[in-house]
């Protein structure tokens, strides 16, 4: 069942800290951050804004520990280490200003099917942690939204991917084929590494 989410806009770091103190934001919270992006060519503007989703593992007044699909560096991609990887990352409110872009929009997401008890929340975080290191990113079928929705509701779904249109849709389609090509090259590389290991030459 696809979770129907409600959202609460978080206006500032102070607002985030108030939500943590009130118990609204903590272990197994779902946060969506809007990433405003646009390409300007002559008098046309092509909007390819998107939303990044992450799961909160731990929340304190000093920062968050989050689990999300993070893009790899160009070097990591060239070395065939995947285009994105599920990682756990610590955000220090005093120094990390990039991930929580309050100007573009930070939202605390909730749904009826999301876990409510501490035990259920702990199980969800454990489920997400079992996927740490995974590099099976897919723009349409296994992205950051899919990871969080699957972790919290058991249903892997991305409303953003299913409703993509315009430049964002074309970027997604191109990225999908680039990822397929990348994986094919990675498989060929792995084949030759195994062959080398077997033959010892």
UniProtKB/TrEMBL annotation:
Which Pfam family, an example, fits this chain? Answer: LRAT
**What InterPro entries does the annotation carry?**
LRAT_dom (IPR007053)
Q: Which residues form the LRAT domain?
A: 48-154
The protein here is known as Uncharacterized protein LOC111138008
Q: Which organism is it from?
A: Crassostrea virginica
């Amino acid at each position: 069942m696809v979770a129907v989410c409600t959202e609460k806009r978080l206006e500032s770091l102070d607002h985030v800290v108030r939500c943590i103190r009130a118990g609204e934001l903590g272990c197994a919270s779902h946060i969506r951050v809007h990433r405003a992006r646009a390409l300007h060519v002559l008098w046309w503007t092509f909007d390819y804004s998107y939303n990044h989703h992450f799961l909160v593992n731990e929340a304190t007044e000093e920062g968050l520990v989050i689990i999300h699909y993070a893009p790899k560096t160009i070097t990591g991609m060239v070395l065939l280490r995947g285009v994105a990887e599920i990682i756990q990352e610590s955000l220090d409110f005093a120094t990390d200003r990039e991930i929580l872009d309050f100007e573009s929009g930070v939202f605390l997401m909730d749904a009826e099917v999301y876990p409510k008890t501490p035990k259920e929340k702990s199980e969800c975080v454990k489920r997400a942690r079992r996927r740490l290191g995974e590099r099976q990113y897919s723009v349409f079928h296994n992205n950051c939204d899919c990871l969080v929705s699957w972790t919290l509701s058991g249903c892997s779904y991305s409303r953003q991917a299913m409703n993509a249109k315009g430049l964002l849709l074309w970027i997604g389609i191109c990225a999908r084929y680039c990822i397929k090509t990348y994986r094919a090259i990675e498989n060929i590389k792995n084949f030759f590494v195994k062959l080398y290991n077997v033959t010892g030459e």
